[in-house]
Amino acid sequence: MNPSLFSPEGLAGVIFLILIGVTLIGAVIATCTQRLIRSVVGLAICFLGVAGLYYFLNSPFVALMELLIYVGAVCVTIAFAIMLAEPDENKLLRKKPGMSGGLSLVCGGAIAYGLAYAGVNTTWVSAGAKVNDGSVKAIGVELLTTFSMVFELVSVVLLIAILGALVLARAGRN
Amino acid sequence: MNELIRVVIYFVGIAAFLGLNLAYLGWVERKGAGHIQRRTGPKEVGPFGLLQPLADGLKLMSKQLVIPDSADKWLYMSAPVLAMVPAVLMFVAIPWGEEIVPREFNFGLLMIFAFASVAGLSVLMAGWGSGNKYSLIAGTRAVSQSVAYEIPMLITAITIVMITGSMDLNEIVRQQGDYFWKWNIFRFDKSILMPLSFLVFFICSMAETNRAPFDLGEAESELVAGYMTEYGGMGFGLFMMAEYANIVIGCSLTTILFLGGWQSPIGIFPGPHWFLLKMYFLIWCFVWIRWTYPRTTLWGLLNLSWKYLIPFSLVNLLVTALFIKVF
């Protein structure tokens, strides 16, 4: 099982590794840089890699939604918030003293362990098999039948977020 | 192997089409501006100034790239690239003719909106990375504008998707008939508000591409040149070309969704020539409007979207759903 580099499997592997690399590099930039705006750009790079992974895994709809929502809306909104709140661009992010390092290590370790545990113990669909045909219609039917509860709960969360934003904005006004 | 040849042909074709259009739309704009303001426009380089874009391109390419001291080097350098790349990628999904589609993709419409939304990030990066107050103000303005106008544009596109039941751009064109009264803009049996939603979509695409009267992001009378202030040479050139590429995409999308794409208005010879005719007519309208109307204020701009276009597009969505359900 060692396909040559220029066979379809080999090229697919190379593309997969490139996408993983983009995702990881973006994540490292997002966490390690000292300027807040650069970490937003790192986050955008990370999302681009994730979108590429979705496309690689034959889910173009999810990939495009990742681009539209995460890169186009979430990152832009975060960058916008930074610009409005923090005009002092020379202010660099500093290390917090004390036990924050240990605490973050514990939290990160717990999350990594949880993800690895879930990853190992889930029965994955094999690479060739598809869940459904990935069309908009199939996704829509699934969202409004099998996952309708989750769908509604997510929309309630978004509604609460909008209301919270309105309350906060109103409170500042006289 | 055939597939490879097809990819290469479309790659070269898109690159050539883009190069020609991005260069000569600048000429069209300057000539149009000239004639609207009772001047002649460019006329010295070549006949009718036709070689002017080449001269401009040479000038831009031979200029030194100067990075300002206060700039964030990485953001400053990558912003023009990030503006240009999604603009070029969007051309992959456009159906020029019934058989001339670079990539027959069942999420074509979604793909164009996804890549278009990335452009907002490049404006923010340019505005922040330049380390200049004018750029920063322009960046925030341009993004608040594009966020505001993305919503009615998407909702109007959703009404079209509801009517046609497809996000495949070629399928949307195919469903519109061979005569102009069968185009989506006149399909009153689907929704009586179709001409108005065409107007909303057109206004939104004008605002999304930062064109006057909505060019608050580069208002030269108050902000020098907006987020492009600190860019010289090809950095500025890339921003200008990305703007023209976005205009071509916006007009193509309006043509596809409302004006029947490559369908003929009189029932004979459907093909890419009709597509190009409609698209260039819309582009000419962009130029015409830009040099006819004065710039709005930021508040007027945001009010137009949040108080009129978004409520209207929501009502339009409901009316369309009602028509689909009843008839």
TrEMBL record, chain A:
- EC category: translocase
- Please give one Gene Ontology molecular function term for this protein: NADH dehydrogenase (ubiquinone) activity
Q: Give the reaction(s) catalysed.
A: a quinone + NADH + 5 H(+)(in) = a quinol + NAD(+) + 4 H(+)(out)
Q: Name one GO cellular component term.
A: plasma membrane
Any transmembrane segments, and where?
Answer: 12-33, 40-57, 63-84, 105-127, 147-169
Keywords of the record: Cell membrane, Membrane, NAD, Quinone, Transmembrane, Transmembrane helix
Q: Work out whether the entry's keyword set contains NADP.
A: no
The EC designation for this entry is 7.1.1.-
Membrane association type: Multi-pass membrane protein
- Where does the protein end up? Cell membrane
Keyword Chloroplast among record annotations: no
Concerning Gene3D superfamilies, the annotation shows: NADH-ubiquinone/plastoquinone oxidoreductase chain 6, subunit NuoJ
Q: Name one Pfam family in it.
A: Oxidored_q3
What does this chain do? NDH-1 shuttles electrons from NADH, via FMN and iron-sulfur (Fe-S) centers, to quinones in the respiratory chain. Couples the redox reaction to proton translocation (for every two electrons transferred, four hydrogen ions are translocated across the cytoplasmic membrane), and thus conserves the redox energy in a proton gradient.
Family membership, please give it. Answer: Belongs to the complex I subunit 6 family.
Report the protein name in the record.
NADH-quinone oxidoreductase subunit J
User: Which organism is this entry from?
Assistant: Candidatus Desulfobia pelagia
UniProtKB/TrEMBL annotation, chain B:
Keyword Transcription assigned: no
Q: What is its EC number?
A: 7.1.1.-
Q: Tell me which UniProt keywords the record has, alphabetically.
A: Cell membrane, Membrane, NAD, Oxidoreductase, Quinone, Translocase, Transmembrane, Transmembrane helix, Ubiquinone
* Reaction equation(s) it catalyzes: a quinone + NADH + 5 H(+)(in) = a quinol + NAD(+) + 4 H(+)(out)
Span-the-membrane segments of this chain are: 7-27, 74-96, 108-131, 151-170, 244-262, 274-293, 305-324
How is the protein disposed in the membrane?
A: Multi-pass membrane protein
The subcellular localization recorded is:
Cell membrane; Membrane
* GO BP annotations listed: aerobic respiration
Leader sequence residues? none
What EC class does the entry list?
translocase
Keyword Signal belongs to the record: no
Domain of life of the source: Bacteria
Q: How does it assemble?
A: NDH-1 is composed of 14 different subunits. Subunits NuoA, H, J, K, L, M, N constitute the membrane sector of the complex.
Record-stated family: Belongs to the complex I subunit 1 family.
Give the HAMAP family listed for this entry.
NDH1_NuoH (MF_01350)
Q: What is this protein called?
A: NADH-quinone oxidoreductase subunit H
Q: Which gene encodes it?
A: nuoH
